[in-house]
Amino acid sequence: PLVSIITSYYNANKYMEQTINCVLNQTFPFWEWIIVDDGSTEEGTEVFLNYIKNKDPRIRIYKKQNEGLAKGRDYAIKYATTDYILPLDSDDLLDMTYIECAYWCAITNPEASWIYSNSLGFYKQQYLWKISFDSERMKKDNILTATALIKKDKIIELEGYGIAKRYVNEDWHLWLRMLSKGYFPVKIKRGGDTTIHMV
After folding, report:
1. Taking Cα atoms as reference points, which of 163, 164, 117 lies closest to residue 144?
2. Above pLDDT 90, what percent of the chain?
3. Using N-to-C axis directions, what is the helix angle for 170-180 and 69-77, rounded to 10°?
4. How many CB atoms lie within 10 A of CB 54?
5. What are the strands, taking DSSP E only, across the chain?
6. In 3D, which of 86, 72, 110 has the Cα closest to residue 26?
């Protein structure tokens, strides 16, 4: 594998089927998918996660006590075997060329620490989030999607997502700490340039 997809899973059986399909249908086959059950309490979780695992040998399942999304992602990163991390929430989707486009964008822009894209909302909120990177605006608003391709060594250097103050979400907390180190992202401009979020 060249990309490690990580999912912190908590009581998401009813949303996960489409997420599974969007991963299995990627044009880029060189991935591993690490799913961490963050202490789910939903009935049938173990059976459902085994069902996911049996769909593809590239999928691995781990279980831990409930500590929240950031800790779940950090736990998954410990088991990642590649140089690139792609967080994917259990109710989000990827364009079928997303990983391929993100990976080659990272390879051709080695100075960038993470690769991001536009974002399309669906379900209760429908929108196209199409905003360019702005470090000054990032200090006030989280304008980038969490579903980005990130260099693993940068996350490890910053000791993972960690726990931010309650009003700062996990990905924004990571982006701000990356910016403080002088790291910056690159946006995908062509093909698979949209991640899809259920909100």
Report:
1. 117
2. 70
3. 60
4. 9
5. 3-9, 31-38, 59-64, 84-87, 92-94, 114-116, 118-122, 127-129, 149-151, 185-187, 194-198
6. 86
